[in-house]
Design a protein that fits this description.
The complex is a heterodimer of chains A (365) and B (319). Chain A has 365 residues and is mostly beta strands. Chain A has four helices and 29 strands. Chain B is mostly beta strands. The chains are: A mainly beta (365), B mainly beta (319).
């Protein structure tokens, strides 16, 4: 014993213990509380059911978006393997690759080529990659990761107004810019090997991002191959395997999915009409790529395409003899210099397409 | 007098912590939360006696670890404050019952945005544990050995579906887990008086986790990973102060949703807990312990403990 107890000390300590216990009861009884917002803007109208929006865990900017990242030549970077997927963009003569192994850790890359300011957005949980403009109402801004998910898909926020954007809906769903549609840019999503074959002069996002991340390692275990989900989705469509990557097209509120795995190993072309819109989907299972364009030119001509082999980036030739590349540009023939209008489309896991667009048509089914 | 002041100061400090707005307690036992089962520290209670332990536990989780590699990442801070109130009563000479009640405050701060605006705090009553302990070898002198076994369960008193403006917060920001768990527990100790004022001890526990339905009854269940804890330590006693060191091994299986493992959950941790125990009165003592990570091997990438501090008051009310 530290000091002789004359009765006073022990009594004092008993009362101290009792007072602490009472304080605990008072402090905690019936007081489940939340304070602060984590910086997340949630108030106001939502275009999506708020009770199906989940906090993913890391919090706002807990997954840090990149802005104006460094680029390197392909031979200067070793973190990529040939089968890794990249999102490729071409603006004028400049070609850049944004690899999934970087996007898995950052989800958004704010970049600029010339006067074109865009954000590459990628959600690792839905496998959806989309490039959209970062100029909103004439103001150039950047996008960040809100930490929120809807249908397990990225909700980005713009730093100009703090509005929330549902990536796969291509729309601002909450905040000052609610109802604003994203202005997308055409991209090509394919393997690093294929992209280098298409554009050897490409630059690629450097692993020197300013963040310490193991870019060679995939952060979600076997998620890409497994049917498991991490968050609930509003519609679970079992017609295709959940994680099968499909190229989905949106036409006036209707959607159609083209399975990359059903294209031939070589280049394949599908001349289609979806929701009264003539379109062409071109792809290759072997190259792990799919793109699509409208087939109607400005002069009203409706083209019909055939595949072109072993001439990448040329993928198609039309009935007039014009050859078209993977970005829909006429590179040779009577319409050289013309560009096909890209469809509103992107690649995502099937489960995500089905969750966002219930009843989506599947080509060939 | 010195020790008395320490005891009173500790009590006042705990009281202040308790009554400060937005400053205390909550959650239970996910990988980012309160060491609920790990806080079951009282051995078997003598027949007719009461034992009380009131602890404040601070868990600072700023380390981002991928596997065994700590990443330089200052984009967020996570803190868990927990208040744990453990009451134990000796029903017979070999059987005692323990109730551990908790209250928790979880705090998440994104340092990428403005610090004041980016803090999110939740707090509330956490889960509780009810444990029956059976002294297989009751503590006697001069044998100075004790073997006690326990079994019980975790009661999901804490909220597990707190939402912010309708957005369900993640499991590790909830005060409770929303699931009933089964718990097995064991305590072994050996003293060495009069040769040395030394006691060595080992506690081990295993938590069989249940499933919650935080996403609604129409959705598949979420299950935290089963947890195994082993604490091995020793205490050296002087007239006024005990010093102790505990090595803690903790293994947690990955969480599961819809039957599938969730990435970036689970792993194992090895940590050291040096502590000082000051006996202030015949039946009262105060302990301060640090929690220092030594090694961790985590599944995927996780935010995990940088350090922890536990301040406790122990009190025995004898028959």
């Amino acid at each position: 014993m530290f000091f002789n107890d004359n009765g006073y000390g022990e009594t004092l300590m008993r009362y101290t213990m009792i007072s602490i216990a009472m304080s605990a009861l008072i402090a905690t009884a019936g007081c489940q509380q939340i304070s602060g917002t984590g910086g997340i803007s949630l108030t106001g109208e939502w275009l999506i059911p708020i009770n199906q929006v989940y906090d993913g865990g890391p919090g706002k900017d807990g997954i840090p978006a990149l802005t104006n990242p460094r680029f390197a030549k392909p031979q200067e970077e070793t973190y990529l393997s040939d089968h890794d997927l990249v999102i490729g963009i071409r603006v004028g003569t400049e070609v850049r690759a944004y690899p999934h192994p970087i996007l898995d850790w950052h989800e958004i890359i704010n970049d600029e080529i010339g006067s074109t300011a865009f954000a590459i957005t990628y959600c690792p949980l839905t496998g959806s990659g989309i490039a959209w403009s970062r100029v909103l109402n004439g103001t150039k801004t950047t996008f960040g990761v809100s930490g929120l998910l809807y249908n397990t898909n990225l909700i980005a926020y713009d730093r100009a107004t703090n509005s929330n954007w549902s990536q796969m809906r291509l729309e601002c769903v909450n905040g000052q810019l609610i109802h604003t549609r994203a202005t997308t840019y055409p991209i090509v999503e394919t393997t690093w090997r294929t992209w280098k074959e298409l554009y050897p002069e490409t630059m690629v996002v450097s692993s020197n991002t300013g963040y310490s991340r193991p870019y060679g390692a995939y952060p979600y275990g076997d998620y890409r191959e497994s049917p498991r989900l991490i968050f609930p989705v509003s519609n679970d469509d079992t017609r295709l395997p959940r994680k099968e990557r499909v190229h989905g097209i949106l036409v006036d509120g209707k959607t159609k999915a083209y399975r990359i795995t059903t294209f031939p190993d070589a280049v394949g072309v599908i001349n289609d009409v979806f929701n009264n819109l003539p379109i062409v989907a071109a792809g290759s299972k072997g190259k792990n790529v799919a793109v699509s364009f409208e087939r109607t030119l400005n002069d009203g001509t409706i083209l019909t395409f055939s595949p072109v082999q072993n001439m990448l980036p040329v993928m198609m030739i039309d009935q007039e003899g014009t050859k078209w590349d993977i970005f829909g540009r006429a590179v040779e023939g009577p319409r050289a210099g013309v560009e096909l209008k890209p469809t509103l489309s992107y690649i995502a896991y099937w489960f995500a397409w089905a969750a966002f667009y219930p009843g989506a048509e599947i080509h060939g089914q | 007098m010195y020790a008395k002041l320490i005891a009173i100061a500790t009590g006042i400090a705990l009281s202040i912590i308790l009554i400060l707005p937005n400053r205390v307690v909550g959650q239970a036992c996910c990988s980012a939360g309160t060491p609920l089962v790990g806080s079951l520290e009282l051995p078997a209670t003598p027949h007719g006696s009461w034992q009380f332990a009131l602890s404040y536990d601070l868990n600072v989780l700023n380390d981002v670890v991928a596997g065994t590699r700590r990443l330089a990442d200052g984009s967020r801070r996570r803190t868990t404050h927990a208040l744990l109130w453990e009451t134990s009563y000796g029903v017979t000479s070999t059987l005692s019952v323990t109730l551990l009640a908790t209250a928790v405050q979880q705090e998440r701060v994104s340092t990428a945005a403005s610090a004041e605006a980016s803090a999110l705090r939740t707090r509330g009553v956490g889960d509780a544990v009810l444990l029956l302990k059976y002294a297989l070898v009751p503590l006697t002198f001069p044998a100075q050995e004790e073997i006690t076994l326990g079994a019980g369960g975790k009661i999901p008193l804490g909220a597990s579906t707190l939402s912010l403006e309708g957005v369900l917060l993640p499991a590790d920001m909830q005060p409770g887990t929303g699931a009933w768990d089964g718990i097995l527990w064991a305590y072994v100790s050996q003293g060495f008086l009069p040769q040395a004022p030394l006691t060595i001890f080992l506690t081990a526990s295993h938590r069989f986790t249940g499933t919650n339905y935080r996403y609604g009854s129409q959705q598949r269940g979420y299950k935290f990973g089963n947890e195994t804890l082993v604490n091995a330590g020793g205490g050296y006693r002087t007239d006024e102060v005990d010093v102790s060191i505990i090595l803690r091994f903790r293994h947690v299986r990955a969480d599961r949703f819809g039957g599938f493992e969730i990435p970036n959950t689970g792993g194992w941790w090895l940590s050291a807990q040096p502590g000082v125990n000051i006996r202030t009165l015949e039946n009262l003592s105060t302990r301060v312990a640090l929690h220092v990570p030594l090694y961790r091997n985590l599944n995927g990438i996780q935010l995990t403990t940088t350090y922890g501090v536990t301040i406790s008051l122990f009190y025995v009310l004898q028959r």
